[in-house]
Amino acid sequence: MKELFPAKQVNGFVFSLLLTVVALSVYFMDMSFELGMTILLITAFIQAGVQLIIFMHAGESKDKSTIYTSLFYSIFIALVTIFGSLLAMVWGYM
Amino acid sequence: MKIDNTQPLEYSTEQNEMNILGFWIFLGAEIMLFATLFTTYFIYADRTGSGPTGADIFEITPVLIETFLLLTSSFTIGLAVNAMRLQRKNATIAFLAVTLLLGAAFLSVEIYEFMHYYHVGAGLQVSAFTGMLLTTLGTHGAHVTFGLFWGLFILMQIKKDGFNPRTANKTFIFSLYWHFLDVMWIFIFSFIYLKGMM
Amino acid sequence: MEFFERFAVPHPSPLIYASMVAIGLTILAIILGITYFKKWGYLWKEWLTTVDHKRIGIMYIISALLMLFRGGADAVMMRLQTSVPDNGFLDAQHYNEVFTTHGVVMVLFMAMPFIIGMMNLVVPLQIGARDVAFPRLNALSFWLFFAGAMLFNISFVIGGSPDAGWTNYYPLASNDFSTSVGVNYYNWALQISGLGTLMTGINFIVTIIKMRAPGMKLMKMPMFTWSALITNAIIVFAFPVLTIALLMGTLDRQFGTALFTSTDGGMDMHWANLFWVWGHPEVYILILPAFGIYSQIISTFSGRNLYGYKSMVASMVIISLMSFLVWAHHFFTMGHDAFTNSIFSVTTMAIAVPTGIKIFNWLLTMWKGKIRFTVPMLYSVAFIPLFTIGGVTGVMLGVASADFQYHNTMFLVAHFHNVIIPGVVFAMLAGLTYWWPKMFGFMLNEKIGKWAFWFITVGFCFSFFPMYITGLDGQARRMYTYSEATGFGPLNMLSFFGAGLMAIGFVIIVYNVLYSIKNSPRNIGNDPWDARSLEWATQSPVQSYNFPVTPEVESADALWDQKKKGSQIFKGKVEKIHMPNNSGLPIIMSGIMFVFAFSFVFYIWAGVIISAIAFFACMVYRTFEKDDGYYIPVSEINETENKNGGAN
C-alpha cells in the first residue's frame, strides 16, 4: 500500500494545500492591495512549479530541454501579452 | 514497432515520445489561450457597467470547495501514473476513477456557481465584466468536461487491454492535461476570485 | 420558404449572380468530369485520405493557388474601381466586401497554406525523415484549413460577405454596423482554419526536434528547416490569441454579450489589441519561411554556402521573441500616452535590426559567387532591394509621431504590400519553381518563367509605388471612390495598369505549368539545380517512403558534401520501412466541422448540435481505433529504386 502513496507526491499535495491556505490569508486578513497581490503572485507561481515538477515530471524525459524551452517561451509571451495589453488598454490609455 | 524496455512504458516507443513532447507543446499553446483570457479579464475586471462587481457576487465557500476538489484530483491522477509505473492495474483504475469523480464533483459545484451568478443578476450579457468572467470560467469548465469524457474512455481501454505502450502513453498524456487544468485553476482562484474579493 | 430566406445575399448585383452561376457550373463540371473519367476511387484512395506529407503539401499549394486567383480577382476589381475618379463599377458596400475578402483570402487562405504546403513538402525531406511526427493530424490540419477556406468563400453567394475589413475592427464588425451574417462567416472560417494551423505548428516542431537524420545537429539543419521551426513556434504561441478573440467576437454577435461594445463596460478597441497580439507575429509567420526559402535558393545559385549561418539562426530566434513585443504600433493613433507609444515605437525599430542582418548575409553569400540567374534566383535577387524599400517605409511608420500622418492612408497599403509581395509571394513563386522538379519529376520552363517574373516584378512596382505618393497626399485606404479635384486619378490609373501587368504575369505562370506538363523532359535526375541540401539526394519525384535508407549527414549542405568532399549520405542497408495507413477520418471530421460552422453562422441550432455530436463521435472512434500502420518490405523498395534508377 505504501508504494502507492509515495512520499514525494503526498508531500507535494500537502504543500499545495498549505500554499492555498497562505493565499487565502489575503481574503481573511486585512492587508493592502500591493501586499495581497505579492502574496498571490508568489503562491500561485510556486503552486504551478510544484505541479509541473513533482506531478507532471517535466524534467524526466530526454526532451526536457525542449519542454522547458517551450514552457519558458510561452510564459514569457504570456506575461508580455498580459502586461503589454494592460499598458496599451488601461495604464497608458488616455 | 521498436519497444525500448529501459524507459517507462509510456515513453517506450519513438511515437510515444513524440506524442508526449507534442502534448507539452500543446500545453504551451494552452498557456497562451488562458493568458489571453486573463489579459482580457484583467482589462475588463472594473468595467462593470450597470452590473454587479466581482466583490458583489463572489462567494468564498463554493470556490474553496472547487479548489479543494481539483487539487485533490490532481493529486490522485499523479497517484494513478505512479501506480501505472508499478504495473498495478486495479490501483491505476481506482485512482483514475476517483480523479474523474472529483472532476465531476468540481463541475457540479461550478454549475451551481453559474446558477448563483445568474440569480444575482450577473448573466452573460449583463456587462463586459460578467461576460468575460463567465467566458474565462466557462473555457476552463469546458476543458474539465472534455477531460472527464477523455479520461473515461482511457479508463475503459486500460480495463480492456491492460497496460501496453498505447494505453500507458494515453494515461500519461491525460495526467499532463489534468494537472495543467489544476494549474490554470490556481491562477483563476488567485487572480479572479481572491483578487476580486480582496 | 422562410427558412431559406436567410441564405439570400442581402446586397445582390449582376456580378454576384454571375459568380453564383460560375461556381455552380464549375462544381458541376468537376463532379461530372471525375465521374466520367471514373476517378472517384483514385481520388479518395490516393489523395483525399492520404497522410503522405508530400501529397498534403501539394494539396495545400493547389488550394493556395486557387485562393491566389480568387484574392487576385478581388485586387483587380479594387484597382479597376479606383482607377478613375467617381467610378461606379462597385458601390460602397461591394467595395467593402471586396477589400475584406481580398485581405482575408490573401493572408489566411493564400499565404498561410502556401508556406505550410512548402513546409510539408520540404521539411521532412531536408531532415531525412519518412514523414511528419503525426501524419494523421497533418491530414486533419489540411482538411480543417480547407473547410475554413471553403466556408469563407461561399459567403459571397450565400448570406453575404464580411465587410468590416480583414482586421474586422469593432464596432464596425458588430451587429449594429455589419448586419449580414458576413462577420459570422469571418469568425467561424478563421476559427476552423486556425485550429488546423495550430495543429500544424505542434506537428512540425515535434517533427523537426525528434525526427532529424543521424548527424544532423540543430546547428546543421538547412536554413529553411530552421525557419520552419521558428515559424511553427510562433504559430503555436500566437494562434491561441486569435482563437479567443474570435470566440469573443462570436459571443458578441451571436449571444449578445457586451465584450466589444461601447456600452455596458465593453471595449471595442480591445479587439484591435487582441487581433494584433496575434496579427503581428502572424506577419513574421509569413515572412520567416520566405527568408528560409531565399537562403536555400541564394546559396544554391551562388554556388556558395550560406554566409553567416549562426547569425541567420540567431536573428530568427530574436525575431520570434520580438515579434510579440511590437503589436501596438498598429494603433498608435488610438489614444495612448506618449510613454506607451514610445515603448512600442522603440521595439518596432529594434526588430528591423535582425532583419537587416539577414539582408547583409544574403548579399555576402552572393559576393564573389558564381551566380546563375535562374527563375528562383531572379525572384530572390529582386526581393532584396524591393523588400528593403518595404522595410524602410516600415521603420517610417514605426515612428509613432509621424504615424499620425501615415495612419490608414494608401502609404500604409503600399508599405505592407511592399513587404508581403516581394517577401512572401516572390518567395513562394521562387520556392515553387525551385522544388517543382522534386514534387513532379520535371522542371518548369525557364524562358516562360522569366517572362512571368518580369511581368510580376514590373507590375508590382507600377501597382504599389504610386500608392506611397497618393498616401502622403492624403488618399485614405478603403475609400471606394474619390473626386477628380483630389488629383489622385492619374496615379491610381498607373496602379491599375500595374495590377494588370501582374495579372498577366500570373496567367503566364499557369500557362507555364500547362506547357511544362506537356513539353518538359522527364529524365532530369535527382538534382537538376546542382543544389546542396538533403532533399536533392533522393529521387524526383519522391517515393512514398522518401529515402530508401536513412541518410546520415555532416552539415547543412549534405548533398554538396557528398558531391565535393566524397562523404557518403547513404551508408546503411535497405531495411523494411514503417509507414502510416491512410485514413478517411480527417476529411470526414472536417466535413462535419464545416456543417457545424455553417449552421452556427446561420443560427441553425439543430445542425450545430447534431454536427457537434458527430464530431465527438469521430474522436471517440479514433481513441478506440488501433492502427499501427504497415511495413514496406525490402524487396518492394529495391524494385522501386531499381525501376527509377534511384540513389543507391
UniProtKB/TrEMBL annotation, chain A:
GO terms for molecular function: cytochrome bo3 ubiquinol oxidase activity; oxidoreductase activity, acting on diphenols and related substances as donors, oxygen as acceptor; proton transmembrane transporter activity. It is an enzyme of class 1 (oxidoreductase). This is Quinol oxidase subunit 4. The lineage of its organism: Bacteria, Bacillati, Bacillota, Bacilli, Bacillales. InterPro entries: Cyt_c_oxidase_su4_prok (IPR005171), Cytochrome_c_oxidase_bac_sub4 (IPR050968), QoxD (IPR014250). It is a multi-pass membrane protein. Its EC number is 1.10.3.-. Pfam families: COX4_pro. The chain crosses the membrane at residues 12-29, 35-59, 71-93. It comes from the Bacteria. It catalyses: 2 a quinol + O2 = 2 a quinone + 2 H2O. Signal peptide: none annotated. Its main location: membrane. Belongs to the cytochrome c oxidase bacterial subunit 4 family. GO terms for cellular component: cytochrome o ubiquinol oxidase complex; plasma membrane. It is found in: Cell membrane. One of its GO terms (biological process) is aerobic electron transport chain. Catalyzes quinol oxidation with the concomitant reduction of oxygen to water. Keywords: Cell membrane, Membrane, Oxidoreductase, Transmembrane, Transmembrane helix.
From TrEMBL, chain B:
The keyword Oxidoreductase applies. The chain crosses the membrane at residues 21-43, 63-81, 93-112, 132-155, 176-194. Signal peptide: none annotated. Coiled coil: none annotated. Pfam families: COX3 (PF00510). Residues 1-197 form the Heme-copper oxidase subunit III family profile domain. CDD domains: Ubiquinol_oxidase_III (cd02863). InterPro entries: Cyt_c/ubiquinol_Oxase_su3, Cyt_c_oxidase-like_su3, Cyt_c_oxidase_su3-like_sf, Cyt_c_oxidase_su3_a-hlx, Ubiquinol_oxase_su3_dom. It comes from the Bacteria. GO terms for cellular component: plasma membrane. It is found in: Cell membrane. It is a multi-pass membrane protein. Its main location: membrane. Keywords: Cell membrane, Membrane, Oxidoreductase, Transmembrane, Transmembrane helix. GO terms for molecular function: cytochrome-c oxidase activity; oxidoreductase activity. Belongs to the cytochrome c oxidase subunit 3 family. This is Cytochrome o ubiquinol oxidase subunit III. It comes from Oceanobacillus chungangensis.
Automatic annotation (TrEMBL), chain C:
GO terms for molecular function: copper ion binding; cytochrome-c oxidase activity; heme binding; oxidoreductase activity, acting on diphenols and related substances as donors, oxygen as acceptor. Belongs to the heme-copper respiratory oxidase family. Pfam families: COX1. Keywords: Cell membrane, Copper, Electron transport, Heme, Hydrogen ion transport, Ion transport, Iron, Membrane, Metal-binding, Oxidoreductase, Respiratory chain, Translocase, Transmembrane, Transmembrane helix, Transport. Its EC number is 1.10.3.-. InterPro entries: Cyt_c_oxase-like_su1_dom, Cyt_c_oxase-like_su1_sf, Cyt_C_Oxase_1, Cyt_c_Oxase_su1_BS, QoxB. Pathway: Energy metabolism; oxidative phosphorylation. GO terms for biological process: electron transport coupled proton transport; oxidative phosphorylation; respiratory electron transport chain. It is found in: Cell membrane. NCBIfam families: QoxB. Residues 38-554 form the Cytochrome oxidase subunit I profile domain. It is a multi-pass membrane protein. Signal peptide: none annotated. It is an enzyme of class 1 (oxidoreductase). This is Quinol oxidase subunit 1. Catalyzes quinol oxidation with the concomitant reduction of oxygen to water. Its main location: membrane. It catalyses: 4 Fe(II)-[cytochrome c] + O2 + 8 H(+)(in) = 4 Fe(III)-[cytochrome c] + 2 H2O + 4 H(+)(out); 2 a quinol + O2 = 2 a quinone + 2 H2O. Its cofactor is ferriheme a; Cu cation. One of its GO terms (cellular component) is respiratory chain complex. The chain crosses the membrane at residues 15-37, 58-78, 98-125, 137-158, 188-209, 229-251, 271-294, 306-330, 342-364, 376-399, 419-436, 448-469, 489-514, 602-621. Heme A3. Binds a copper B center.
